[in-house]
Design brief:
With 251 residues, this protein is mainly beta. The chain is built from 1 helix and 6 strands. The termini are far apart.
Length: 251
């Protein structure tokens, strides 16, 4: 048996109900709603923590396939009695209701209410206060199912440097270049080998004492006898002896 699925191409489609024979209806492209989409009571709702309590549980009618994304916010609704009052005839009553609502707002600010969403799962979640409520506190919540939702993790960043006032740039100091030493070239041939030192023991020679030279005495000239007239011989024909000049010792 062969079943042929028909394909319908049309500019518009008007239906009252659409359903799937399986778990869900799949839309293969982006979907635009021109009217208001309405969801089930598991998608959004309200919660209330009454005075003296500290938490409230929200339980889904149908369990989600995956853990939904949940948000909760403190909200204050308009007093429903205002709908039945006439602004012209019930001005005093309207003012009294608005003053009471303003007092509730200031009391919440003064109480510094802090809360968390805990115990979140496919079945529901819990809204818990840090301290017990001093008055009735209303919440609005939403729970959206996202298929294969992504989880992003924080990155480890370096500590930011403190802001410092800008400073004018300082010109770099002029430095004279350092002299580069010239390389020393070893002119000794690589193949030349030095002679081995002589290991023959040398006999010890006692040191000789140097004797200073003896001084040479200077020659003393011999005295020349003086010749007196008495000593001069008479002219006897003997030769007269002339004395020789005495040499100068300094010459």
């Amino acid at each position: 048996m062969e079943i042929i699925t028909p394909q319908v191409f049309a500019d518009g489609l008007t239906i009252n109900t659409i359903s799937s024979g399986k778990d869900a209806v799949t839309f293969m492209s982006d979907t635009i709603f021109f009217g208001r989409p309405y969801f089930t009571t598991d998608t959004a709702g309200f919660a209330k923590i009454e005075k003296g309590d500290q938490s409230v549980d929200v339980v889904f009618d149908k369990e989600y396939l995956e853990q939904p994304i949940v948000n909760a916010t403190i909200t204050l609704n308009t007093d429903p009695q205002l709908k039945d009052l006439n602004t012209e005839t019930d001005a005093d009553a309207i003012k009294a209701l608005k003053d009471a609502q303003e007092k509730n707002i200031q009391d919440l600010f003064a109480a510094d209410v802090k809360y968390l969403v805990v115990n979140k799962s496919e079945k529901g979640f819990t809204i818990i206060l840090k301290e017990k409520a001093t008055q009735d506190i209303n919440f609005s919540w939403t729970a959206l199912a996202v298929k294969s939702a992504k989880t992003f993790s924080s990155k480890v960043d370096t500590a930011p440097t403190p802001d410092t006032p800008p400073t004018s740039p300082t010109p770099p100091a002029e430095t004279s270049p350092e002299p580069v030493p010239e390389p020393v070239i070893d002119e000794t041939p690589a193949s030349e080998t030095l002679p081995e030192p002589d290991t023959t023991p040398v006999p010890d020679v006692p040191p000789t004492s140097e004797t200073p030279p003896e001084p040479v005495p200077e020659p003393i000239p011999e005295p020349v006898p003086e010749v007196t007239p008495d000593d001069v011989p008479s002219d006897t024909g003997s030769p007269v002896v002339t004395p020789e000049p005495i040499p100068d010792p300094g010459l």
